[in-house]
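Researcher: Re-running this chain for the archive, since the previous output was lost when a drive failed. Same request as before.
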Amino acid sequence: MQKIRHSFAHILALSVKELYPDAWFGTGPDIENGFYYDIKTRTPINNEDLKRIEKKMKEVLKRNLVFKKKTTTKAEAKKIFKDQPFKLEILKELEGDKVSVYETGDFIDLCKGPHVESTKELNSNAFKLEKIAGAYFQGDEKNPMLTRIYGLAFKTEKELNDYLKLKEEAEKRDHRVLGEKLGIFMFDDEVGSGLPLWLPKGAILRKLIKDYLYQELIEDGYGFVETPHIGKLSLWQTSGHWENYRENIYSPIDIEGEKFVLKPMNCPFHVKIFKSQPRSYRELPLKMAEFGTVYRFERSGTLHGLTRVRGFTQDDAHIWCRENQLKKELTKLLKQGLKILKKFGFKEYNIYLSTRPEKYAGTEQGWKKATTILEQVLKEAKLDYNIDPGGGVFYGPKIDIKVKDTLGREWQCTTIQVDFNLPDRFQMFFINEKGEKERPYMIHRALYGSLERFIGVLIEHYAGAFPFWLAPVQIKILPVSDKFNKYAREIKEELGDCRVEVAEEKETISKKIRQGEMEKIPYLLIVGEKEKKAKTVSVRKRGKGDLGAMKMEKFKEIINK
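Model: Regenerated C-alpha cells:
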C-alpha cells in the first residue's frame, strides 16, 4: 500500500500544478489510510476546491503516466527546482552529493520513492480527497504556513467504501461531540486549550472509575499518597526529566529566587516519600499509588479532545521490590491490567514490548537486563506481543497494552515500566537481612493510563451509552405532569443508592422521553395517574424500548442483576 499511497500523493501534486501553475510544493508522503501534500498557492485552496482537484486527478490517472526515477547531483537538482524554494531548502539538508528525483508527466519531485510503475496500477475509484489543514513547512512555527491536502487511498473501491463507513461511525462516536452533548466535560478558550473542565456527570464518571480502582488497589496492599502540582527544578534535574524530557516540561516559575516547574510526572515525589524513612527488606514489595494530575507541554496542533491534553490525571503507582520479587510483581500487574480493562468492556487488545529510545538514561547493560525481564514475563504468561523498537521511556523499557474499541481502533491504556535509573539517581536503598544497604528495583505502572484518555476512549467505545453500573445517571423518572412529581420523588427515594434524576420541568411527556433517550440513560420510568394508583412504574430500557408497567420490586430485581 505504501507504493500506491505515495504515488497518489504525486498525482495530487501534478493535478494541483496543472490547476495552480504558480504552486510551490513542500513534502507529500504516504500515511496511514492515505497520503497528503503540503502546498503553497497564491490563490488559497479551500475545502470547496477539493472536488475540482479530485476530478483533475481522475483525468490524470487515465493518461497512463509512468513514474520515472532518476539519480542526479545536487547541483543539477538545484537547477531542476530553481523555482521551488521549499524543495531547495529540503535539498540543503540532504547528505551526500547524489539525490533521487521522480518524474510523472510534467511534475518532478525530490523523492526516494518507492512508487508504482505507472498510473495503470492506481484505481481511480479507490481514492478520495478528504480535507485540508494548515501545516508549517517542516513542522517549524518559524517557517511559512502551507496548505496540507489530505487524501484516502486503497487498492479497491470496496476497501475505500468500508473505510468511509467506519469513519462515519467513528464520527458519530466522537467523544469531543458526545462529551459536551452528554454533559460530561467541556473546554473553554479563556481557560486554555487542552485543559478540560469536568461537568457534574463527568465528575461522577471519574469518581466511579477511581473508586473501582481504589478498592482493587487497597485489597492488593497499595498505600495511597497525594503530592503537589509543582516542584523545585532541582528535583527534575536529579531525576533526569529536565535533561531527557525537557521538551514536554513547562518553563520554570520563579518563586522568591528559586525555580519551580509544573510536574510532568509523579515519580520523583513518590521516590522522596520512599526515602523519607529507613526501609527494611520486610516492607518490600512496597506499593505506592496516587491519582496524580500532571502537566505536559503539547503543541496546539497535537491536542485532541480528552485523548491528547495538557493537564491530565494518571492512575499512577510505583512498586519497589527486590530482584527476586520483580517477575512476580510484573506478572501480577499484567494480569491485573487485563482484568480491569475487561471489567470496562475491552475484551480485545494488542500488547507491545517497547524498547530503548535514542534518548535514554542509564547503561546499555541495565536496559538489556530490564528488557529481558519484561520479555520473560510476557513469554511465561503465554501472551502474544509485538516489539515496538525505541518506544520505551527514557528511564526504562515497558509493556504497553493497547485496547481495541468497538470499531477495532487501538488505544494506549495500561503501561508497565521497569526502571533501573531513578533508584540510582536518588541513591535509594533498603536494609537487607544482613543489615547491609541494597538498591531496590522500581516499577512504574498506570492501569488506565490517564483518566482523561480512558474516559475519552470509553465514550467512543460505548458511543456514550455506558453500561448500567458506569452510567452517571442510571435512571430518570418522568412524571406525566406536575401532579405526579411527588410520586416520582417517592420512587426516587425507594431506589436508594441508584443514581436517579427526576424530570420535573414543565414539558410534554414525549419531549421528556426524547430528552432521556438523547442523554442515553439506561432506564426511563414514566409515572402518571395509572401508575400512581397501581403503585407501579412504566419502564423504558435504552435500546429495547417499552418494557411495560411493573411493580417496583420487579424493577429492582432487574437492575440488581
